[in-house]
Task: inverse folding
């Protein structure tokens, strides 16, 4: 991006794009993302973006500040992403853990990869809809059909869910059935569920087994175009201790 006539430089935009992409971030997450930028430089650029009213800050806990983007930031960069006004404590915690997981997976990967956040995906689904009520209706219709994020390693498209608590069985079964269809149709190559403990993992496994049995009973085709059983592509993984915050 050419910044010759702007008050901002590429490092400012690097931070702003990261905040827009994720919707809510911590200073530590920004520093991890920018990698080579010092703490002093990050804080200086955050103040600059705050003063320009492109981002805003909220104290989530006694020692934790989080940053949100303003809608003006999306318009300023023409960034295709939904922007929320705020977040509840639970939603914020869930979103911040997702950020940590993405950063962890990128650091652990042998090669860099692209990824799409839920906010980017949702914006795609709302594209072209201008009526406010129609936007609300479409948002509610797709609320449970969008993964937390999608990873794009070479030749792969992995839908990722982070489940922190045990959800109702009917809700889990509906989501598993949706993913099984999407895997069969080639929309994703894999689905990963990251869970913090066995109770959450077992609930998801039961849902997978239930839907698998239902498909078998109704003689539905369970393989994708490559002949792979779609239920084998749904994996349950332990949330890394670094992401959970354990020592």
Result:
């Amino acid at each position: 991006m050419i910044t010759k006539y702007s008050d901002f430089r590429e490092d400012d935009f690097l931070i702003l794009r990261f905040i827009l992409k994720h919707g809510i971030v911590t200073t530590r997450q920004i520093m991890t993302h920018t990698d080579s930028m010092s703490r002093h430089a990050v804080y200086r650029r955050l103040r600059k973006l705050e003063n320009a009213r492109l981002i805003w800050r909220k104290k989530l806990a006694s020692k934790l500040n989080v940053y949100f983007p303003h809608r003006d930031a999306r318009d300023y960069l023409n960034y295709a992403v939904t922007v929320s006004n705020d977040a509840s404590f639970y939603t914020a915690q869930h979103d911040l853990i997702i950020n940590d997981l993405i950063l962890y997976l990128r650091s652990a990967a042998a090669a860099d990869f692209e990824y799409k956040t839920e906010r980017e995906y949702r914006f795609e689904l709302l594209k072209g809809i201008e009526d406010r009520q129609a936007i609300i209706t479409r948002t509610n219709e797709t609320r449970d059909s969008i993964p937390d994020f999608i990873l794009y390693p070479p030749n792969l498209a992995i839908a990722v869910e982070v489940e922190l608590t045990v959800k109702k069985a009917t809700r889990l079964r509906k989501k598993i059935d949706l993913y099984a269809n999407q895997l069969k149709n080639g929309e994703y190559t894999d689905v990963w569920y990251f869970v913090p403990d066995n109770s959450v993992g077992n609930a998801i496994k039961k849902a997978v087994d239930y839907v698998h049995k239902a498909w078998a009973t109704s003689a539905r085709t369970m393989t994708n175009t490559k002949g792979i059983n779609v239920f084998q592509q749904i994996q349950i993984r332990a949330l890394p201790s670094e992401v959970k915050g354990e020592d």
Remarks:
- Residues 89-108 form the longest helix (20 residues).
